[in-house]
Amino acid sequence: MNIVSRVQFPKTAEISDLYFKVSNDISINFDGDKNQIILNEDSTISLNTYFNSIYEKYYTKYTSINSLYYLLKIEGDFKVFAYRETSEASSRELIFSQTIKGCQLSEYVKIILPELKQNQAASRIYLEITCLSEQGLFTEGLVVTEQAKHRDVSLAIITCTFKKEVYVKKTVDTILQDSFLQDKKFKVFVVDNGKTLNTSDFKDYRVELISNRNVGGSGGFTKGLIEALQEGVYTHFLFMDDDIELDSEAIYRLFSLYEYAKQDFAVAGSMLDLYKKHILYEAGAIYNKSIDEEGNIKQDKFTGYPLKHKLDLRNTTTLNSLLLEDNIDYGGFWFFAFSKEIVERIGLPLPLFIKIDDMEFGLRINEHFNRGIVAFPSIAVWHEPFYAKRPIWDFYYYIRNHLITNSIHSSLEYVKTVKIFTHCILYYLFIFDYNSAQMVVKGFEDYMQGPNFITSNDPEILHAKIFESSRNYKNQLILANSIGNSESYQITTAGKFQKLVSLLMLNGHFLPQFLIADESAVIRFGVKEKDRDSICKGLAKKRILYVIEENPNSYQYELEQKAGLNILFTWFNSAIRSYLRWSSVSAEWKKAFKDLTSMQFWQEYLEPQK
């Protein structure tokens, strides 16, 4: 008997719909140490939920598992049903029913499911349990197979942290306290880029604290990966952010997938919205592509686009849509697992500090492995969504690292690239966001220095300079977002003439001072095109209040004509000077790629003093 997964219990009422659907007269105990659901006569528990469905299609496609059964700890009399739903069917199929009386918690009740279906017929399976006695209890559920495992899995869990002591300690404790993981072979490597943790913080022998320089997320993860590889005992590795909210069942299910895997693949854990916990924010992503409002994929350079984006996981239709598998280009390093064979085949991550490192790593996996990345439904963590973050220095790495990655895995046309970045810089100048515009220029310029820029610059010193540079212009205030999600707010559009005047005047940068009104223009940026104000609203205004949909903050920018014109001049000068070296720089990055992902490079990069 091998346990494939467990029926998960919610830790709070807020997320209970992701685990169980229950009648109003059912009581759920949210004490994590004592899972218990109290049922009354005729009340029903349904496992028709995100975390407690069996995603048959993924098990039969990627593993050798073809037969499963439940072991339930229930007390009382019950009627148990099992249903199957597909991505296409509008109704559900009853595949099992049984009446069970006199159940006691001292013994498991066995519910044998029909043999799992293959290929297109495979779908999603779940149980529904109706109480027939005056009162009943449900305390545990296991999903089990009698099939022998293909292999033993030893997992190195690598988390990189920078001054987030509380978060990383909680994450590690969550793993260590899972009684079912005690029989699994694993070790947690905590890479401390901020050097604020002590060995006394992690006394368990299964945790190793590694003090590290601040070489960013890519450097931290790679440091942990190198340490794990040198121990020579791990079959698989898991990159995991320090500030996630983790249910350790995700790691348990990861073990099962790899123990029964028919082929080699990486697992991209899905990201759930930390602030809207029932929303699936991303289940894998695509690179250099986006999806229009009709759902069509289109080419879109320098873009990573999340798949299964913003889906409400309380909806049954949504759960069935997860069976429609996407071609995934990469998965975020908040939870990303892969085998030792993958590392041996593709090398280590690129030294990109942060941003795009997970994208590039995923692109490499897909170049070497067919269907190399899988976003297995229910393997997920909660993470702060990107709409809530907006550090200015982030733009530097976003621009520079996108250029590097496209040089290696795609083709960069000079004219198209300059056009895209010119549009980007003009946008920031139009809203008076000079720090962001400067980061775009700086990212482009450093890319044009070629791979020697990476090898000749200490990443700690460089990051300190970038951070300070991102605050050069003091015209920005961060305010509370009071109108971002207001339903009464009216979006303002601009006509052709207004757009032309705004462009010619660079939205006020070329206007005489006496024509600039000491007023503020509110510009709202929505997720969808129709929910965005025209940035031309800022013409002849002294200030812009920039409001991003769902972001808790808004940003007040003040017009500084000289600053804007200097940035524009610097950009055109850089773009023109890059023309002659464009092809050779791209070739240099492509040529240096193998060295930059080698063990020798990383050991010298991480410990330059040696």
Largest sheet, if any?
Answer: 10 strands, antiparallel
Structure annotation, total helices: 16
Please give the radius of gyration in angstroms: 27 Å
SSE class: alpha+beta
CATH topology of the largest domain: Spore Coat Polysaccharide Biosynthesis Protein SpsA, Chain A
Task: Provide a compact summary of the structure.
With 610 residues, the protein is an alpha+beta fold.
Explained architecture:
30% of the residues lie in helices and 27% in strands. The chain is α+β, with helices and mostly antiparallel strands and 610 residues long. It has three domains: 2-145, Jelly Rolls (Sandwich), CATH 2.60.120; 154-388, Spore Coat Polysaccharide Biosynthesis Protein SpsA, Chain A; 394-577, no CATH class. The strands form five sheets. Strands 1, 2, 3, 4, 5, 6, 7, 8, 9 and 10 form a ten-stranded antiparallel beta sheet that branches. A seven-stranded mixed beta sheet has the order 13-12-11-14-21-15-22, with helices on both faces. A hairpin with a 5-residue loop joins strand 16 and strand 17 (279-282). Helix 9 (414-430) packs antiparallel against helix 14 and helix 10 (434-447) runs parallel beside helix 14 (561-577). The protein is globular. The mean pLDDT is 93.
Write the SSE topology.
Blueprint: E1 2-6, E2 21-22, E3 27-29, E4 36-40, E5 44-46, H1 56-62, E6 69-85, E7 93-103, E8 109-112, E9 124-131, E10 135-145, E11 154-161, H2 165-176, E12 185-192, E13 207-211, H3 216-231, E14 236-241, H4 249-259, E15 266-268, E16 270-273, E17 279-282, E18 285-291, E19 297-306, E20 311-312, H5 316-321, E21 335-339, H6 340-346, H7 357-368, E22 373-374, E23 380-383, H8 394-409, H9 414-430, H10 434-447, H11 452-456, H12 459-469, E24 476-480, H13 496-504, E25 517-525, E26 541-548, E27 553-558, H14 561-577, H15 582-596, H16 599-606
Parallel strand pairs: 11-12, 11-14, 12-13, 15-22, 16-23, 25-26
Antiparallel strand pairs: 1-10, 2-5, 3-4, 4-10, 5-9, 6-7, 6-8, 6-9, 6-10, 14-21, 15-21, 16-17, 17-20, 18-19, 24-27, 26-27
Helix pairs in contact: 3-16, 8-10, 8-15, 9-10, 9-14, 10-14
